[in-house]
Model the fold of this input.
Amino acid sequence: MTVRPMRFGLAGTGYWARVTHAPALASTPGIEFAAAWGRNAESAARIAASYDVTAHSDFDAFLADVDGVAFSVPPDVQSVLAARAAEAGKHLLLEKPISASGPAAEALAQSVENAGVASVVFFTARFQPDVRSWLSDVASEGGWDGGCAVWLGSALSASSPFNTPWRRQLGGLWDLGPHAVSLLWACLGPVRSVTADAGGSDVTCLVLHHEGGATSTVTVTLGATEAAEYFELYIWGAPGRRAAPPETTEPSAALQIALRELAANARSGHTAHPCDVRFGRDIGLVLAQAQRQLDVSSR
Done:
């Protein structure tokens, strides 16, 4: 019996949508890249023409044309539109962070829960096969006491395609922080509280307190120079020290995995996934708690 491909639409027309989402949607088995929508109608039309899909200027007409939506829009836009998509019965491939505030994250998760649709949040590393293998290995060893993540990004440089308004507004805490917290959460257990401080050049430092007693630290910035770009994440404990694999250079391959797993859940009627909207909400609440501390300290 032949299974009909799931029709997916792309909401968003920026750099990440063009270089990661669109290629993944067009090349994932079981997925039909069917439609494109964007706040910039001309950009949506160009993406649609490149992949021979339908361009939509009306978001409701776009939703009516698809089974699921891959979002690549700013967090504050995503949280509103994704709730509308869920209410229309569409399955969701979300970007991190799922929203720009804790209340918005809570509201989106509730909308998805009420609608009973499947969701996956694209924490890139969580869909890398080498990282998944590493996570399996460290889970089997156990005995971890702490961890450390440092991500020095240069997205605020004038030449970066990631130098976007929402990143300039929210900074590394909300852009790189979700990736780091997601991985440390997977290694050391859920985060029960966070202590946050800030420095210059968009530097944010977090101390994460995990259930079970482990602690970890995160340092992120989007304000580093290209020469200083760097990523490292490791955990430590009785078995020694274990460093995570580097960030993938092929994010579309990781997104294909996310799409396949989302489609499998949608077809089977399951909504739970290790990186579903509920997990995205939990990460968002950690970020929001950190942001509140930063806001108080900056007054």
